[in-house]
Specification:
Elements: E1 2-7, H1 11-28, E2 32-37, H2 40-46, E3 54-57, H3 67-78, E4 83-88, H4 94-99, E5 106-109, H5 114-141, E6 142-147, E7 150-155, E8 159-163, E9 171-176, E10 180-184, H6 187-193, E11 197-201, E12 204-207, E13 211-215, E14 220-223, E15 228-230, H7 233-243
Parallel strand pairs: 1-2, 1-3, 3-4, 4-5
Antiparallel strand pairs: 6-7, 8-9, 8-12, 9-10, 11-12, 13-14, 14-15
Helix pairs in contact: 1-5
Length: 244
């Protein structure tokens, strides 16, 4: 689920922005979830670790004229793929976003006409979805790994399973339609990089598109090419929901 965060301490304005975002999501059937908050502390209370996200930030929160700018620096540092939009009265602070290398997607002034603000927000939501789709598609087409100084790739449509063996620390085993190979790495890295790889237990990542069936009693997942793997008790309910 792609997250959209709105930070605005004026309740009326925040509800206005939220209504535009939600309406755009509904009209386009986007898989997005909106979080709206009135202060920075509340932002961190609702924030979840993510690779992507759209952030609508007011520059001035309470008595702090640069609260939104400070938060944007944290966002850019921790979420490189984030799309940041400032909605503010402080036109004079726009140069600081360049100076601090925040690279905002948009800078919307509150004294714009209502329809212009609405148009900017709609465009920002649509563009974020487009960027997300393009990035996910490019990452889904191939799976890359490295052995020594050489780089290799496997078509994502051929990749079936990644797993680790407790007797071979620091190694990842790859199973595809026509290849089995081991290389240095860890599953956490690949789980974050490739959104179509599903963590089914601490030592296995499966390609969503290669799942055939699931035996919930045995907690066994059956994949293409006659391959199967165990599902942890903690992940079992998630896998069952997928089949429902």
């Amino acid at each position: 689920m792609f997250p959209v965060y709105i930070l605005e301490d004026n309740d009326k304005q925040r509800e206005f922005y939220k209504s535009i975002v939600v309406n755009t999501i509904v009209i386009n059937d986007y898989a997005m979830k909106v979080f709206d908050v009135g202060d920075v502390e509340s932002f961190f209370n609702v924030f979840s670790e993510t690779q992507y996200g759209l952030f609508f930030l007011d520059m001035e929160i309470g008595e702090d004229v640069k609260a939104g700018l400070k938060l944007s620096e944290w966002i850019r540092k921790n979420i490189p793929n984030a799309n940041i939009v400032f909605i503010t009265t402080h036109e004079e602070l726009s140069f600081l976003t360049l100076e601090r290398k925040v690279s905002p997607m948009d800078y919307v002034l509150k004294d714009f006409a209502v329809e212009k603000i609405k148009s900017h927000i709609i465009d920002d939501v649509n563009l974020s979805q487009k960027y997300y789709d393009n990035d996910i598609y490019s990452k889904r087409t191939t799976f890359g790994y490295k052995i020594g100084s050489k780089y290799f790739s496997v078509p994502m449509e051929d990749l079936i399973l990644l797993y680790t063996d407790k007797n071979l620390s620091g190694q990842v085993n790859l199973v595809s339609k026509n290849r089995r190979v081991s290389f240095p790495g860890n599953l956490n890295f690949y789980e974050k990089k490739y959104s179509n790889l599903l963590r089914v237990d601490k030592s296995s990542l499966v390609n969503n598109d290669k799942i055939i069936s699931y035996d919930s009693r045995k907690r066994t997942l059956y994949l293409e090419n006659g391959i199967n793997c165990d599902v942890s008790l903690r992940k079992s309910s998630m896998v069952k929901k997928m089949f429902k």
